[in-house]
Design a protein that fits this description.
238 residues, alpha/beta, Rossmann fold, Dihydrodipicolinate Reductase, domain 2, six-stranded parallel beta sheet, five-stranded mixed beta sheet, 8 helices, 25% strand, elongated, binds nicotinamide-adenine-dinucleotide
């Protein structure tokens, strides 16, 4: 596969290593100082663009790839409010788009376990849930995209919570997400249920970025040659 890397930061570099190991070609690398190189001429012949940049530039980059009929695997978080527009555009115009707030296998298993636990907890309202996420100090968005996906999964299955809030909830129906920024932590997520008598938590702790980068490459291999919108549910079939 001929891959374009859009965003050559921590994730872009990790994705490059794994792509090369798996026999792919990195035909184009774009970072913030050479945005103009993201043009139809340079995108010609690219099978998939893998986008890990910043929330402010993700939508613009995705649209440029769509205009050149290049499939996009996007990992940038913090732009969830525009996700539906991109998905609709992709479907209505026969483009190819893969999005995951987290490309790690373990986290996607956690998403399923989270929904299952919330279904059970629906019957036990003595347990108060909240979510905690910890990341490195350079992370720009808070809460993390993964924490928001966990919150959405919980709210969908637990009737007594209707919306998530940052830090302090004022209504019993608020699901609180607490964000911590520490050192070089790649990513830690906990869903915690606390009662007067005990505390139950489910947790995922990333050891490094390799699992995330591998997930993005598997997504690129999966989406190449297809049209439509895909997620980790399509890739992993958990
Ligand atoms: N979905 C996942 O599994 C996953 C995993 C890790 C990180 N992320 C997210 O991916 C994004 C990138 O993470 P990172 O750790 O690589 O960050 P990073 O800061 O190390 O890298 C981002 C890179 O994007 C570049 N950039 C900024 N604007 C650009 C533009 N307009 N065009 C091209 N490049 C541009 C920056 O110069 C930088 O090199 C963040 O939103 C992060 O939250 C998602």
């Amino acid at each position: 596969m001929k891959i374009a890397l859009i965003g050559y930061g921590k994730m872009g570099k990790e994705v490059e290593k794994i792509a090369l190991d798996r026999g792919h070609t990195i035909a184009l690398i774009i970072d913030k100082d050479d945005e103009k190189k993201l043009n139809p001429e340079n995108l010609k012949g690219i099978d998939v663009a893998i986008e890990f940049t910043i929330p402010e530039s993700a939508v613009h980059n995705i649209k440029k790839c769509f205009n050149s009929n290049v499939a996009v695997v996007c990992g940038t978080t913090g732009w969830v409010q525009e996700l539906d527009t991109i998905i609709d555009f992709c479907k209505n115009n026969n483009k190819a788009f893969f999005y995951a707030s987290n490309y790690s296998l373990g986290v996607n298993i956690l998403f399923k376990v989270n929904s299952f636990v919330a279904q059970i907890m629906n019957k036990y309202d003595t347990y108060e849930p909240h979510i905690e996420e910890t990341h490195h100090t350079q992370k720009l968005d808070a809460p993390s995209g993964t924490a928001i996906t966990l919150a959405d999964g919980l709210i969908k299955n637990l009737n007594r919570k209707t919306n998530w809030v940052k830090e302090n909830g004022t209504n019993p129906s608020d699901l609180v997400i607490k964000s911590f920024r520490e050192g070089t932590v790649p990513g830690n997520h906990k869903v915690i249920y606390e009662s007067e008598f005990d505390k139950l938590h489910i947790e995922h702790d990333s050891k490094n970025r390799q699992g995330l980068a591998m997930g993005a490459i598997l997504a690129a291999e999966f989406i190449a040659g297809k049209t439509g919108y895909f997620t980790m549910n399509d890739l992993l079939n958990i």
